[in-house]
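JOB MANIFEST
job_type = single_chain_structure
chain_count = 1
residues = 277
[input]
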Amino acid sequence: MPLSALCKRALPTLGLLAYVAAGQAAAPQSVQIFAAGSLRGVVTGLAAEAGPALGVQLQPSFGGSGAMRERIEQGESPDLLLSADLGSPRKLEAQGRTVVPPIAFARNRMCIVSRRSAGITAANLIDRMLAASVRVKTSTPIADPSGDYAWSIFKKIEALRPGAEAILQRKAQASMNLVAKPETPTQSAAAALFATHAIDLSITYCSGSGALEQELPELTSLPVPPELDPHPVYGVAVLSMKPEALRLALFLLSEKGQAIIAKAGLVPLLDAPEPAQ
């Protein structure tokens, strides 16, 4: 279903439920959120702005969207799932676990993170990814949409270079479970892999690539060319009729909510994806 049609289908229902629920709420309640790891900045912004405005106390847990969905399927019951894709919310809807249809609320872009010394550009990207000496890191598909998006890039490359998909999948599988000891207490796991030279290239969300560059100035990020980028769309599954949960989901789509999304480095829902630089 086109994104615009999905929004049109979901918004009237969500707005009505939130309006009715607002009149029934007797006292502020906490809202338990399962959220994608790439949404930490968004959830922090929601807690600071939406929390006081709506009288909501957020209780977030972070992880891969697919893994979080599986926890819900196994019996856990958060009020909202903020997913890095629409696939997990749609699966929960098909299982009858949602109170409104899945709602798209943000976009992202995929970036290639590598060392500046590697000299990776849009022109030589595919050649460098396929080079035998270059170790490629992705997240785990299914458990984390970032991995699914990365592997969809492999499929797009396959259309240009027959045989490339299998090579890139093998590279990604070889690096998938790598763990490196951080050099400092605050160093991220992703930065540690680069710092210890365990990997040469990582495919990740552009919203998080800037933080990696700040940790290790030797790194640089390159937006995936538009023809290869799967253009990630994030979705929320509303799993509870709790008034505060409904209001919080609606807040995500407001101007203030979309500003929080932009500040966190994601692309607001109604903004066109930016061209590669």
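[summary]
Residues 3-107+232-268 form a domain with the D-Maltodextrin-Binding Protein; domain 2 fold (CATH 3.40.190.10).
The chain has eleven helices and ten strands.
exit_status = 0
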